[in-house]
Write a structure and sequence with these properties.
Blueprint: H1 2-13, E1 19-31, E2 37-48, E3 62-72, E4 83-91, E5 98-102, E6 113-118, E7 126-129
Antiparallel strand pairs: 1-2, 2-5, 3-4, 3-6, 6-7
């Protein structure tokens, strides 16, 4: 019984160690008429283990940058980006904030491309198909 209680303490206390940072909850991509791509991103709060805990995920006017990077589907190491777009904005709160990232140039209509969407590379990223 004592052993189980020790395992449950971190869950009950809610004081996990780690820095909280902006992560990606959801992302969808749409092709614009001029073949640029717009990615709608919903932010979440992620926990980076092994780092000192911060004040939390209230942005309080903090600048958050979201990137969308296109890779070939067979580039499993994400080593050779094909396109990249980024949007930075000041946000009052991270959780649930919507950010739009739009490419500055046209993106090929290639189903062999995928998009890695990231706010802070230390926490949750999302991979979505190229529209």
């Amino acid at each position: 019984m004592r052993r189980w209680l020790l395992l449950l303490l971190p869950l009950l206390g809610g004081c996990e160690p780690g820095l909280e940072a902006a992560g990606v909850l959801d992302a969808t991509a749409a092709r614009l008429e001029d073949d640029r791509v717009s990615v709608e991103v919903t932010l979440a709060c992620g926990l980076v283990y092994g780092m000192a805990r911060s004040q939390g995920c209230d942005a309080d006017g903090e600048r958050v940058c979201v990137s969308a990077t296109w890779y070939a589907a067979d580039d499993t190491a994400f080593a050779h980006p094909v396109h990249r777009a980024e949007s930075c904005q000041t946000v009052p709160d991270i959780i649930g904030t919507q950010v739009t990232v739009t490419t500055s140039e046209a993106v090929d209509r290639d189903p062999g491309l995928r998009i890695l969407v990231s706010a802070d590379p230390r926490v949750a990223n999302v991979i979505i198909p190229n529209p």
